[in-house]
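Record type: monomer structure entry
Structure origin: computed from sequence
Chain ID: A
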Amino acid sequence: MAKHDPDLDLLFTALGDPTRRAILSRLARGPASVSELAAPHDMALPSFLGHLKKLEDAGLIATAKSGRVRTCTLLPWALRPARNWLDEQKAVWEERLDQFDDYVMQLMKERQHGPGSED
């Protein structure tokens, strides 16, 4: 049975939106103010703040307020659980494909030499 990780759900939900991925891409270059992050996006500020909240809830960004300016910072280690999950899935599928390849090779050998023959 598959393990259910609510934190992983939050992470993938946050990554599932192109606006939020664009924000993360921008923050990968360094911290930025909310107004700087919002500028390229054609949406009302409350909607944009909703995107930031989802990123913050998922642990992908941190925000800090200095005076009237709120600055966002990427927390790159927060992507590690998603990376680990993807690596696990890759290993499972590579093993399955290797088993399938072995099966196909066995079928081909049997067609060439007949069932039960040894090489």
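Annotation 1: The mean pLDDT is 88.
Annotation 2: The helical segments are 6-15, 18-27, 34-38, 45-57, 80-113.
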